[in-house]
Design brief:
single chain; alpha/beta; GIY-YIG endonuclease; Rossmann fold; 6 domains; 20 helices
Length: 746
């Protein structure tokens, strides 16, 4: 298969190999780190380590990366396949990046080719290979005066809306603006003629002069910056700051210090929705070129920005988890914001944790790492308590106001309306009347989580999963939130024939409807995966909230993470009681983090905040300890319980998961695997046991759990497991995976 050779610029070019040699190529296959290929004579003086090549693997044609040049392999060259096409004549991946990816593969016991495929943008693994397209981005051409803004808002309101969107984003794709505002293209051209907007071919936001707000840092911020600025090599800093304590300010000043040294900075955030806020703030404040990279960009735009970073055209990169792999020469600092967030863990393919890889990369490059959170993960707290991390505490809000007052509202025998206590609805109405904003949080979408027959107790279940179906009123359908199948709503109970079928419980759709009836539809903004399906919808929703107009936000945990809503004064948390019955040992940690994070959205400006938690279990020990003693004390008590039970972070865990459409087949496979392993008193092996959701999408899921206080012993056993012959030819239709340091048992 002939492809055009594309030479892409890269930081370094390697020496040419000897004539007629064998090259090692990393390709995404599950059975080997690299495969050997004969290099045709015409390519021998053009290939180098880190270049992409097109090769054949069995009946497939794949893009791989050259990892080694082997002159000693010439004798057998006639018996191996040749390289089909050379795509790069310079190193597409720097050798330092390949070394990092080798380390990642060794840690997660994953072939190098699969790691490389995870690290490269999809565009660069496609055939036919071609250069990424040029994207058009818009930015402000210059700052606008207050008078100019006022005139534009009154004379050209559509242009003013677009200008606000660009100003808020810092730099934005033209097609994203068009998705927000249908007439954006013409309006942008008009604003360009007025000298207010400028067009560019990358997402880089360049600032020529750093700006520092005229305010005094808190004592905690000053101490944290002193520690970070004094570090000359590798160090991990846990920036443990309560909500509103100014962690972002510490980030920005630490970034500026690195830029003044001529170094670059990598900033990781857990979700796409958090990138615009941090990107815009950093871009306005530091001297340098700031870019953003995440899966919300098109494949082409993502590839081009990745290339810009690799080629040294970016000083600060704000990105989601996959950004940890981006080559960045001259890196001086890595920041992981909201480090506790489970979104940093990849749940399929290479199951890496971006936070852990940030620490690994910081160690490799001998640079400081900052892990920031108001609710640090227990793993990071454990490392801070044992002295592995510098524990930097921020315990004062920058606005000097206290944390929001938290009130547990016992809903037993209380008058309710659509999932909300009547007294809560009254408080919401009062807050809106005073010009404030309210957040009603429920981590469950749809109208109700179950459809029940009152006559016989029948519950609507998914025919393909072991879960209840969620009722969605707007579309009048039942939906499975695990396999995404939909079902019609039955008129009669299929078990007893009764017509007394009612939805039970509440979801965000029902709460939104209840609030619309109480305060008016125009004041309710619902935020969940049913109403916000794209990055552009998310931007538009955030822009509406940030106007500061009185409103009620009803949403899932999309709204609980890292957002700053200055006019938000009241948070209402609905139906957290179900979390008390989870079988996952991490459930208390995740619930506490969720409650603290969502509570911290309130009272972040100059108005006092309040949190109301509706519950039938006000005496739960978790509530009492978390709200009376604080997150740190709660975490210490939970860590002691984890250590007594032998759970992470006091131990190290791995899970082998398997699924098949035949339950006996998957159980037999895991049983054979367990029996093939040698006895090892240092590693506990549990299973095969059914996954928390045994049947999902017609597949039966089971797992083997491995737990040990000695990581080397666990890794030795896992290597023995991967050498088991049964893994090379698993039963037809059976799929298995290895998850090292799993974050969920499901």
């Amino acid at each position: 298969m002939k492809q055009a050779s594309i030479a892409l610029p890269a930081p370094h070019a390697e020496a040419s190999p000897p004539a007629d040699c064998v090259v090692q190529v990393a390709v995404p296959v599950p059975f080997a780190d690299t495969l050997s290929y004969h290099l045709p004579p015409a390519m021998t003086d053009r290939v180098c380590i880190g270049a992409r090549v097109v090769v054949s693997v069995r009946n497939r044609t794949l893009v791989g990366v050259v990892t080694a040049l082997d002159a000693s392999g010439t004798a057998s060259a006639v018996r191996i396949r040749p390289v089909d096409t050379l795509l790069d004549e310079t190193a597409f991946l720097p050798e330092s990046s390949l070394d990092f990816l080798r380390q990642v593969g060794a840690y997660y016991l994953t072939p190098l080719g699969e790691v490389v495929a995870t690290a490269l943008p999809n565009w660069f693994r496609r055939l036919p290979a071609k250069a990424p397209p040029v994207a058009r981005w818009w930015r402000l051409a210059r700052p606008l005066s207050a008078q100019e803004k006022k005139q534009l808002a009154s004379r050209a309101p559509r242009q003013w809306e677009i200008l606000q969107a660009v100003e808020q984003a810092g730099v934005i794709l033209g097609k994203d603006l068009a998705a927000l505002y249908p007439q954006a293209a013409a309006a942008c051209r008009q604003l360009q003629k007025k000298g207010l907007l400028a067009e560019q071919d990358s997402c880089v936001l360049e600032n020529q002069q750093a700006t520092t707000p005229d305010f005094e840092l808190t004592t905690g911020q000053q101490k944290a910056l002193e520690v970070i600025r004094s570090q000359q090599g590798f160090a991990v800093n846990l920036l443990d700051g309560i909500t509103g304590s100014g962690k972002t300010e510490v980030y920005i000043r630490a970034i500026q210090q690195q830029l003044e040294k001529g170094r670059k900075v990598l900033v990781l955030v857990p979700e796409i929705g958090l990138t615009p806020q941090l990107f815009g703030e950093i871009g306005r404040r530091v001297t340098g070129r700031v870019a953003v990279l995440h899966s919300g960009l098109s494949d082409g735009a993502r590839a081009r920005e990745w290339q810009n970073v690799r080629d040294g055209k970016v000083d600060v990169l704000v990105c989601t988890r996959s950004g940890i792999f981006v080559p960045m020469e001259g890196l001086g600092l890595i920041i992981v914001d909201e480090e506790h967030d489970s979104s940093f863990k990849q749940q399929d393919g290479l199951r890496y944790h971006a936070r852990d890889l940030a620490v690994l990369r910081g160690q490799r490059e001998n640079i400081p790492v900052i892990l920031g959170s108001a609710t640090p993960s227990f793993e990071s707290l454990h490392n801070a308590r044992t002295g592995k991390y510098h524990w930097l505490k921020l315990r004062q809000r920058t606005n000097r106001s206290p944390l929001p007052a938290i009130q547990l509202l016992n809903t037993q025998n209380k008058p309710m309306r659509g999932g909300l206590a009547v007294s809560v609805l009254q408080r919401i109405d009062q807050e809106l009347a005073e010009g404030n904003q309210v957040l009603v949080f429920l981590n469950r979408r749809g109208w109700s989580p179950a459809l029940l027959c009152h006559a016989c107790g029948w519950v609507a279940d998914c025919q393909h999963c072991d879960v209840k179906l969620t009722y969605h009123k707007r579309i009048h359908r039942l939906r499975c939130h695990h396999c995404d199948r939909e079902y019609p709503v039955p008129e009669f109970c299929p078990k007893c024939g009764s017509q007394d079928i009612q939805p039970m419980g509440e979801g965000t759709e029902k709460l939104g409807d209840t609030l619309a009836g109480a305060v008016g539809t125009e004041r309710v903004i619902r935020v969940d995966r049913d109403t916000v399906r794209s990055a552009n919808q998310w931007k538009k929703t955030l822009a509406r909230i940030r106007t500061g107009q009185p409103c009620v936000m009803v949403g899932t945990q999309m709204l609980s993470k890292g957002h700053d809503f200055p006019n938000l004064t009241l948070v209402v948390v609905v139906n957290v009681d179900a979390n008390f019955f989870s079988l996952d040992f991490r459930a208390p940690e995740k619930l506490a983090q969720l409650l603290v994070q969502v509570s911290g959205r309130a009272g972040r400006k100059d108005r006092a905040g309040e949190v109301l938690i509706q519950t039938h279990c006000p005496d739960q020990p978790l509530f009492q300890q978390l709200f009376r003693q604080g997150y740190e004390a709660f975490a210490e008590a939970e860590l002691e319980q984890r250590a007594a039970a032998g759970f992470p972070p006091a131990s190290h865990m791995a899970i082998v998961r398997a699924r098949a459409k035949n339950a006996e087949q998957v159980e037999g496979f895991l049983q054979q695997m367990a029996e093939a392993l040698p006895e090892n008193p240092e590693v506990a092996v549990m299973g095969p046991i059914p996954a928390p959701i045994f049947r999902k999408g017609d597949f039966y899921h089971m797992q083997l759990l491995f737990n040990s206080h000695q990581r080397p012993a666990l890794r030795r056993l896992l290597r023995q497991l991967l050498a088991w012959p049964g893994l090379k030819r698993p039963p037809s239709g059976l799929h298995w995976s290895l998850d090292i340091d799993p974050q969920e048992l499901a």
